[in-house]
Design a protein that fits this description.
- The chain is of the alpha+beta class.
- It has two domains: about 80 residues, no CATH class; about 50 residues, no CATH class.
- The longest helix is centred in the last third of the chain and has 22 residues.
- The N and C termini lie far apart (about 80 Å).
Length: about 180
């Protein structure tokens, strides 16, 4: 005897299976005779099992006795399992806790001035002549060097490039050797 199973997934789609139990080497097995997938609760399009399809299934499976009234009445509907993971509430949905009592603070004697805004470093060397480009580099090099030193978390990381880029006492810069990498 065939049976009807309708499975709804979490996205709202319904998959309708017409299945049949049969014996195979003493074991009971199931066989899918027909499957149909549609959005949940659709009012347009065709039904999962219309009369023409029912006649076609009877013709394709003559060894199976179909009692369509019993099949349609005894259908199994399987709903999706509830979410096991709880979603975090949105920040606006979170209950607001009462603010802690204010802690007395000593009055500030001096107001610290906010740091001066840092200028944006140009992405390319500016200047039309060689003298203009050298003047540009002389202006920006100390600013960039200071920012690198401020961001450095490990002094040893910046020691080797500084030694080679600043030059020796004679004023001639040396290339960075592989031993310093």
């Amino acid at each position: 005897m065939p049976f009807l199973r309708v499975i709804r997934d979490k996205r709202g789609y319904e998959t309708t299976y017409l299945m049949h139990w049969f014996q195979d080497s003493g074991r009971q097995r199931s066989k899918v005779l027909y499957a149909f997938r549609s959005p949940s609760g659709t009012r347009v399009g065709r039904d999962a099992l219309d009369p023409g399809l029912m006649r076609q299934l009877e013709f394709q499976n003559p060894a199976i006795a179909f009692d369509w009234k019993a099949v349609l009445a005894d259908r199994q509907v399987i709903e999706p399992s509830p979410e096991l993971h709880r979603r975090r509430p949105k920040r606006s949905d979170e209950p607001k806790a009462a603010p802690p009592p204010p802690v007395p603070r000593p009055p500030k004697v001096e107001a610290v001035a906010p740091p001066a805004p840092r200028p944006m470093i140009p992405a390319a060397i500016e200047g039309l002549t060689a003298d203009d480009r050298i003047a540009f580099l002389r202006h920006w090099y100390p600013i960039v060097r200071e920012r690198v030193d401020q961001r450095a978390s490990d002094a040893d990381r910046h020691a080797a490039p500084q030694l080679s880029s600043e030059g020796s006492e004679s004023g001639v810069s040396r290339p960075i050797g592989r031993s310093l990498w």
